[in-house]
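User: I'm curious whether this sequence folds into something compact or stays loose and floppy. Could you predict its structure so I can see for myself?
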Amino acid sequence: MVIRIIIGTINRVHFVYLVLYGYSFLIGGACMTSKKESIIQSIRSDIVGGLIKSGQKLPSIRKQSEKFDCSLNTIISVYQELENKNLIYSRPKSGYFVVAQEVLLPLMKIKRIDFASAAPDPSSIPQNDFRQCMNKAMDLFESSIFTYPDPQGLLSLRQEVVKLFHQQQVFASEGQIFVFSGAQQALHLLSGMPFPNGKTNILVEQPTYWGMLTALEAQKQTVIGIERTPNGIDWATLERHFQSNMIKFFYTIPRFHNPLGTSYTPEDKMRLAELAKNYDVYIVEDDYLADLETNSKADPIRAYNGASHIIYLRSFSKVMLPGLRLAAAAVPDSLIPLLQMHKHTADLSTSVLSQGVLEIYMKSGMYAHHAKQMKSLYNQRIKKLGEISKRLLPPESLYSIESSGGVFTAIRLPGSDTEEMVKRLEIRGVDVLPADRQFLSSFPKMNLLRLSIIRTDEQDIEEGIRIIAEELERVQHIQHTSSSRKPFIWL
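Assistant: Here's the prediction. I'll summarize afterward.
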């Protein structure tokens, strides 16, 4: 009886051991398979992207096993797989080589996933509607085409802009409205002209819209940066700048920031409006994505009793054709004479034909309809980007993942070379924009990538984030392998 119990116990222990051993074997096998696929993808990307040239010899099996921290058998299997895919070939006693470029050519035509563009996708623009508006504008504004109209813009268009601004709680008269040849012209003029407060320095968020930085650099303005994070700005620092640094104006993107994608809270906007009045500092409020706002209670800074010191600027490029080059601003009365003079000297007047197209588009209801469609489309995409990023990307890379609207978000590349990452993503068909150019040269960079959803559909978003996640994982693996290797010490 005792012998039977002992034997039964031994059999049960043996059975449990076999089950655990089998489970660990399966898990280990799955990990090995995943690693093998990752190595295959890495080498394949280097070959297709041209980092490893046609005819070039690949590193030896031993060197590759050290690089990828895996067994020799794994690399042998990887090379066999790549050979089966006709990417490499073997020479007896010589090693493995990349095949001729003619064979690789079909593989090099990779579909692009565009996370870099900030201009609307042509397929999302109702070009026939614009064509009709253009033809109508030629008829209605024929006489005006042969003259130089008011540098502030066509009166009939400014009246339509007043109605549009009222919908955003920006209450301005037609005399306070200026129509510019794009927002870039407005920023350029405002940066270079004197202001009624007699101050000379300009304060900008860091990071910020690169076009503003280039305008300031071209005019050799004295510029001060203040850090903007996903949580906002440091109010004590901002107030100190307003009080002590002769700030002419503070340039801010309060709604759907470029490149972060974040927005200020109502309390932040109210506080900014109050500080601007208290310290006689103007604020240039770049509300370039107001048409995409999903929260009906999200008002601009100008709506918070800030009419005396807020220049409210709106671009039409994200909803209409960027090529029309149109933007509008509501400015304080104190600034109107100076801005009239500088606008007139810049271009005499904004294109009458472009203004006519926008006016007809707005009066016909086409603008409101198209803006509603774009809001729905972009909001769906930015939510998708947020969901997939949180699922696939490491937590430390989720810098400013937003799902409340807009078109941009920023991810961080902790411990990796931004330029190298951009290059590798480009090889794999993913275009991204490094945020380095959105910082002042004197301001610390943050290793950020700006991602745009303007020209990506939901399928592209998922595929693109998956590729970014793989490249981040590859960098982490290389860093871990390098740090875990202990140097050999002679005794």
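Summary: Residues 1-10, 15-28 have pLDDT under 50 and may be disordered. The radius of gyration is 29 Å.
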